[in-house]
Design brief:
By secondary structure, this protein is of the alpha/beta class. Helix content is about 45%, strand content about 10%. It contains 4 helices and 3 strands, in the order E-H-E-H-E-H-H. A 3-stranded parallel β-sheet has the order 1-2-3, with no helix packed on it. Strand 2, helix 2 and strand 3 (about 55) form a beta-alpha-beta unit. The chain is elongated.
């Protein structure tokens, strides 16, 4: 079996499409996490990754979007402390 491993897509549909276009032949796709995050296309990326396969590892960004309060508050705390060129 030939597995294609993908990870850290972060809602970047264009990057996902480029990776899939350049990927060698494969039998199965395993997603190692962080489907959502910084990019502009979370819905499209979620739909595409679900179409590709059913093996997913939930990444830290995926966990935040799942509504886990402890992780969400940690990220907000860190974000509030960044300033200047490091600000969100």
């Amino acid at each position: 079996m030939r597995a294609l491993l993908i990870s850290d897509i972060h809602a970047n549909l264009e990057a996902l499409e480029a990776v899939l276009a350049a990927a060698p032949a494969h039998d199965v796709v395993w997603n190692l996490g962080d489907v959502v995050g910084y990019g502009a296309n979370p819905n499209e990326v979620i739909d595409e990754t679900r179409r590709l396969g059913s093996v997913f590892v939930r990444g830290n960004h995926d966990r935040v979007c799942s509504g886990l309060p402890a992780l969400r508050s940690s990220i907000l705390w860190r974000s509030a402390r960044r300033d200047g060129p490091n600000a969100c």
